[in-house]
Amino acid sequence: MVLSLVTLLLSASDDFAVVRRERDGLVLAKRPAAQSEFEELRVEGDTDASPESLSDIIWNDRARSDVKTYLAHRQIVQVEAQKRIERQLVDAPIIGKRDSLVRFERHTEADGTIVISWTLGGKPENAKAETMKLQRGAWRLTPKPGGGTRVEFRTIADPGGVPALFAISPQRDVALSIVRAVLEAS
Known about the structure:
Elements: H1 2-11, E1 17-21, E2 27-32, E3 39-47, H2 51-59, E4 71-79, E5 83-92, E6 96-108, E7 114-122, E8 134-143, E9 149-158, H3 168-185
Antiparallel strand pairs: 1-2, 2-3, 3-9, 4-5, 5-6, 6-7, 7-8, 8-9
């Protein structure tokens, strides 16, 4: 299920509009999202690190912990070699608290590209708040000829009950911060 949603997410037409180009080489882009007034975001960049080392950092959450993602609590509920389910409690200004299950999956494609994807997995038992309306995304770590990695991070998060206008800027900043934290950890 997660793999089919990610295939759809990553194979959709590339109608992203560049929002801004950062001095560090990252490019932030957006496009309208189906099923939501929130935007789907994409951050792209290049690094000398290998896809395997980046995947390890992402999968094992070894990036800087001081990045402001508004994730107040995370608990791993179920784990397998390349799949896991996490309970995530988000607490953000204006949006408030959202308590959700998120399903993660990691796989390697034939060309060596590593994809780590996530999608909303529902409402936890004994939820402490409303559940996110929509949450999905993926890291795509593609090996570059001669070494290094082309990094692509896509995400959409719709908390529900809040106009997108209030969350656009913070969500863009968080997406850039997450990618930077992973690249700095490599």
